[in-house]
Design a protein that fits this description.
CATH topology: Rossmann fold
Distance between the termini: 75 Å
Strand order of the largest sheet: 2-1-3-4-6-8
CATH architecture: 3-Layer(aba) Sandwich
Structural class: alpha/beta
Oligomer: single chain
Radius of gyration: 19 Å
CATH class: Alpha Beta
């Protein structure tokens, strides 16, 4: 048999392509269903607070960041608050959409960004895009960001929940602000908490992390609406 190595390599590449395509399509379908559900929620019930919440899932089409969807479900089902969902490689599109709507005076509440893994890193990127247009971000929540990015000064509050690890790209880390006087950062290393038992792929789904995210979001929305 000629070129056995090339044939094996071709089969491996084909197999990997099928897996990645399946992940991508599954995430797209899931995101479309998720966004439609929240549109229906807004039609049925009016939220008691105004705000713009955007969640962002991490690598492989967001397959392992289901905690973002769980957060959206909790906000919609328990508080009638809608959140838009996307994946990390669509960060530029999300930024452009927020900027366009903000300039058109279509955003009437605090902007809240939430992301896990690569989604956490790219939400920092979204905040930086908004900073160039002088658009404030009331709250940024990052779950296990895998790159040491700094938080831009247009972010008022940053909550960073992370799990250190020795494995590159699967290790969360502490974050710093461009301007600590303008951005209040809370870095929470889950290794300091008892009984967490999480890793990079499960941290966003843990009950404690979910409750913390919901509490921070509700507090931010209530404060902003109280001032308006």
């Amino acid at each position: 048999m000629k070129y056995p190595f090339r044939r094996k390599m071709a089969k491996s590449i084909c197999f990997l392509s099928v897996i990645l395509t399946t992940f991508f399509l599954a995430s797209c379908i899931d995101l479309a269903v998720n966004q439609n559900r929240h549109k229906q929620t807004l039609v049925k019930k009016k939220s008691f607070v105004k705000g713009e919440i955007y969640t962002m899932r991490g690598g492989l089409g967001g397959v392992f960041s289901k905690g973002m969807n769980h957060l959206e479900d909790t906000l919609a089902d328990n508080y009638q608050i809608s959140a838009s969902s996307t994946v990390w490689f669509k960060a530029k599109g999300l930024s452009d959409s927020i900027i366009k709507r903000y300039k058109a005076n279509e955003i009437h509440g605090p902007i809240i960004l939430v992301g896990h893994s690569l989604g956490a890193n790219d939400q920092i990127g979204v905040a930086r895009f908004l900073a160039k247009e002088n658009i404030p971000v009331a709250l940024l929540i990052t779950i296990d960001p895998v790159l040491p990015l700094r938080i831009p000064a247009n972010v008022k509050q940053e909550i960073n929940i992370y799990k250190p690890s020795f494995v590159p790209l699967f290790s969360g880390m502490s974050l710093k602000a461009d301007n600590p006087k303008l951005t209040r950062i809370e870095n929470l290393n889950v290794d300091t908490l008892k009984g967490m038992g999480v890793n990079h792929f499960t941290i966003d789904k843990h009950q404690y992390v979910q409750k913390l995210m919901v509490d921070k979001i509700l507090a931010t929305l209530k404060e902003a609406n109280r001032k308006s």
